[in-house]
Amino acid sequence: MEHRLEAEVTLSGALPPNVPATEVVPRAASEAIAHTIGKRGEGRLVEWKLEGDLLRVVFESSGPRPHQALLAFVRRLGEELGRSARVGVRTFRATRYRTEFALDAEPKAPITLPMAHELTVVGKVATLSLIGLSEEGLRDNWMDRAVALVQEKVRRQAYEGKEQYWSQITASAPREHTFHADPTEEMLKRQWVRSGPTKGKWYLGPNAAHLMRTMERIAVEEVLRPLAFQEVVQPHHDSFDILLRTGHLEGLPGEFYYVAEPKTRDPAAWERFTDLVKITRQVPEDELARMVAPPSAVSCYAQCPTTYWWLSGRTLATDTLPLKIFDRAAVSNRYESGGRHGLERVDEFHRIEPVFLGAPEDLVALRERLLERYRHVFDDLLELEWRTAWVTPFYMQQSGKVGVEDSQTRVKGTIDFEAYLPYRGTREDSEWLEFQNLSIVGEKYTKAFSIKSQKGELWSGCTGIGLERWLTAFLAQKGLDAAGWPDGFRRYAGDLPTGVHFL
Amino acid sequence: MEHRLEAEVTLSGALPPNVPATEVVPRAASEAIAHTIGKRGEGRLVEWKLEGDLLRVVFESSGPRPHQALLAFVRRLGEELGRSARVGVRTFRATRYRTEFALDAEPKAPITLPMAHELTVVGKVATLSLIGLSEEGLRDNWMDRAVALVQEKVRRQAYEGKEQYWSQITASAPREHTFHADPTEEMLKRQWVRSGPTKGKWYLGPNAAHLMRTMERIAVEEVLRPLAFQEVVQPHHDSFDILLRTGHLEGLPGEFYYVAEPKTRDPAAWERFTDLVKITRQVPEDELARMVAPPSAVSCYAQCPTTYWWLSGRTLATDTLPLKIFDRAAVSNRYESGGRHGLERVDEFHRIEPVFLGAPEDLVALRERLLERYRHVFDDLLELEWRTAWVTPFYMQQSGKVGVEDSQTRVKGTIDFEAYLPYRGTREDSEWLEFQNLSIVGEKYTKAFSIKSQKGELWSGCTGIGLERWLTAFLAQKGLDAAGWPDGFRRYAGDLPTGVHFL
Question: Contact, A1 vs A50, CB < 8 A?
Fold first, then answer.
């Protein structure tokens, strides 16, 4: 059989002579197998041996893996021995747990796992043994997750270097561009912005701030209010617990800014630190390390996880659906490292995050209305050269979750909005700037956070509006002088601030 | 003499016979003393001894402390020996540096310092010896700062438990209050807010968010726009360097949320972490500690430091003064620990921070205009029961920096705005809520950040508007039902959102 689980069960004592292990052990095992594997596959207890208080058992199965059978066996054994012999089960573990499973492809490079194991691959069949798996690891299905991880790694190797799926949906007509400079460089020359005191963050002086707030007002008044989105104010720290539930913590840990609390607020405990700062005017790093707790949260990476948390465990009334809300309070951070560039790719940005929940057909209808409103803003007010495209990471393509249909028939997925940046080169050869997106994610997050609707399926989606990106796209095409701006935008911007005059 | 500095100077080699130390050392010392102490006090080289490449010297002085004399001595000695004997100074340190100084009071408890030292106090005279002070410590005036720290600690002991200075300036007429509940409790009952996923942070649903944004609009449209404040957008991480310059890092390290960067963004380096998360669905703390750098910044505590940084090293043109700006982008954090209560005292809050820079007389005039506008808002629109008071920490009182004058003649200082919260008890006996302040801080920050004006003195001030505090003060007096709200506020609030309906 393709799965084999060798385990040790430690009892609280040896069995008395009147309770024969030869009866108890096989019976508990066969009941456990019947209960957990049943007709879905085959299973058996292939070996067992009791020495004093130590019981060694070996389960094999085909079909379902046998760890659920082991858990059921241990529970039954404990109940029976408790009743008949006043002996309990102290603890148990798998000394070795082997399983066979199929891969999508042959691995191109060694596959690692962060625990004791052996992995061999023949063709597209893998055999994985976990060595010394704890009770927690057995109860918590680590084997299933380890198998999924090996499969994912092989798939990633197979698709490494492949582009994400990209399929154009719409494109505005080309426009004539008279401005060809990098807008951040121009703003620096005019002292509209200053590169911030920490990495990839900017201080926007009055002119730049006014333009970014103008973009915010356009988004709120032209897109969100007409579609009856309601504003919320969400915390700007995301807890680890939330990021575990959404999957962000496993996806992007190198892109977070981590948040750590002081171990205490007590000034007396901080006295050595403050004394050293007062005398040396430097940060005493060892003392700081001693006084600050390990990170427990991150500075907002995406806003929607905390909004799902807000609704977690709740049932939404039919008359509140589709629920349309947006947050613009949380400031977002991404550790961009080498990828930073101007205001286009930054470590800190300001995003309006609209989130919507409802029946699938209502969300598809809402997406169409959002697309209409965005089209109005980008065509009529900002007069941008822009396009939209379906985008999908390779692993979703692979799993057959998306096809190549048009937006009318397509249900789940992400649409990217991209703007041409003349300073980067020709419209055909240069990389356009993603300045906006729009996703319907199905039940992924409503399930993860146990959010229900009064009746029927509850899906969700979001459409992050990056204000620095809107601003950069606009300025890169229209320049920094109001004379070059379309009337629609000028009306919203009104008079520009007087700014600050430096000598 | 009251100061004595015993030092060791290590030369790059022994002196050749033709360069007699008996001439060089005393001459360099007397020149150094004349240059650094001169007529401001007395100084002499009281002992010296050269053995091989090790020169021991002892300086004593009265008046100025002798470490500047030692630094000048070492420089001259190095120059002279380099020229005459091709011998340089490798390094130097104080083996023992003793000083005598006066205290404001006799200490009530032992005084600690975070370095090797001896401290004795007789009456109000302290004698402090630092043992083994490095070259850096000598160059960087650690002795002067250690003396100031001892004096500060004695002063703090003397005033421990004393209230801060508080002197009422104005008070609105008492108002009749029909609402006596804790507004946060009421908002929780109506599901307008949810206590956040991390400590002391709140998620505001549509109704609460709408009311807080209404407060923001009132502040901007009734106070800031009429006085021609210009908006900026500032980063929400404060660098350690900035907080060292403002003094915040030595003042409040136990109240910060610290920010730490990943050591790398490279997914391969994070693979063990992500694998463990995928298999165990837990945060592997040791692995995280290995991958995250020590804290290098804090989540915004106060907004004004970063605004001063923005202007650092710049000279403001006369036509731009007084410069009036405000930020509302940075979200503020304070680790409140035991002090948390509802939306009144939180770990995360939203504050508009207006900052102003200009000539002292212009800032005093601006303060009067700000007070007028605030009065209009709190009396006419919000119809609050509120008062203002001068407040000053004890150590400013002690140093005689402030007296008890009225706001017309008073120049530097902080005015607190306080609102009566009926649910806390009677207006006479309960603690009122500080919901606003207004400070003129003189040259403290313009000097620290080298900000200059085209001509004359440049002072600064700020007036933080805490939106959660405005909201709580208002709701605590007027309740959560629009029927109880004054017309002025209702006009601004408009229609309330439909909110979210849970089953």
Answer: no
Q: How many beta carbons lie within 10 A of that of residue B64, not counting itself?
A: 17
Contacts with A413 (C-beta within 8 Å, 6 or more apart), sequence order = A390, A392, A402, A439, A440
**B502 vs A230, A260, A315: nearest CB:** A315
Residues 6 or more apart whose CB falls under 8 angstroms from that of A453 comprise A315, A316, A318, A321, A357, A358, A359
- Kindly list the distances between the CA atom of residue B52 and the CA atoms of B5, B76, B96, B240, B435, in Å, as whole numbers in the listed order: 21, 19, 21, 44, 68
Euclidean distance between CA atoms B24 and A468, whole angstroms = 65
Three-state helix/strand/coil letters over A148-194: HHHHHHHHHHHHCCCCCEEEEEEECCCCCCCCCCCHHHHHHHCCCEE
pLDDT tens-digit map of A142-200: 999 999 999 999 998 888 777 678 889 999 999 999 899 999 999 999 999 999 988 89
> How far apart are alpha carbons A395 and A148 in whole angstroms?
13
Touching check for A437 and chain B: CB below 8 Å?
no
Contact B454 A502 (CB under 8 A): no
Q: What does DSSP say about strands B413-419 and B433-442: parallel, antiparallel, or unpaired?
A: antiparallel
A273: nearest CB among B208, B253, B316: B253
Contact criterion met (CB below 8 Å) for B421 and B475: no
**Nearest neighbour of B320 by CB, restricted to A257, A261, A500:** A500
For A230, which residue in chain B has the nearest alpha carbon?
A: B206
DSSP state of A502: B
Can the peptide bond before residue B66 be classed as cis, meaning omega within 30 degrees of 0? Answer: no
CA–CA separation, A358 and A317 (whole Å): 10
Read off the pLDDT of residues B73-121 as tens digits, 9 standing for 90 and up: 999 999 999 999 999 999 999 999 999 999 999 999 999 999 999 999 9
Model pLDDT, residue A195:
93
Q: What is the DSSP string of B120-169?
A: EEETTEEEEEEEEE-HHHHHTTHHHHHHHHHHHHHHHHHHTTPPPEEEEE
Instruction: Kindly tell me if the per-residue pLDDT of A395 is higher than 50.
Output: no
φ/ψ of B414, rounded to 5, equals -120, 130
On whether the CB atoms of residues B195 and B290 are closer than 8 A, the answer is no
Residue pair B470/B417 in contact by the 8 Å Cβ criterion = no
Is the Cβ of A494 closer than 8 Å to some Cβ of chain B?
no
What is the ipTM score, two decimals?
0.90
A88: left (phi over 0), alpha (psi -120 to 50) or beta: beta
**How far is the alpha carbon of B278 from chain A, nearest alpha carbon, in Å?**
6
Q: Which of B67, B279, B310 to mutate to test the interface with A (most CBs of A within 10 A)?
A: B279
Helix (H) or strand (E) holding B218: helix B206-218
Quick check: B208 and B193 in contact, CB under 8 A? yes
- Structure tokens of B195? 């206590």
Write the pLDDT tens digit of every residue in B276-287: 999 999 999 999
Q: What's the mean per-residue pLDDT of chain A?
A: 93
What's the pTM?
0.90
Q: Which residues of A are catalytic?
A: 304, 334, 336, 345, 353, 416, 434, 437, 462, 469
Task: Give start and end residues of each alpha helix (H) in A200-331.
Answer: 206-218, 240-246, 248-251, 271-280, 285-291, 304-310
Give me the total of CB pairs closer than 8 Å, taking one residue from chain A and one from chain B: 325
Bridge-based pairing state of the strands A413-419 and A433-442: antiparallel
Answer yes or no: B334 catalytic: yes
Residue A442 near residue A476 (C-beta atoms within 8 A): no
Query: Rounded to whole angstroms, how far apart are CA atoms B332 and B201?
Result: 11
Of all residues in chain B, the one with the smallest CA distance to A205 is: B232
- Interstrand relation of B315-316 and B452-453 (parallel, antiparallel or unpaired): parallel
Q: Tokens in use for A348?
A: 């800190």
Phi, psi (rounded to 5 degrees) for A126 = -105, 145
Spatial separation of the C-alpha atoms in residues A139 and A93, rounded to whole Å: 10
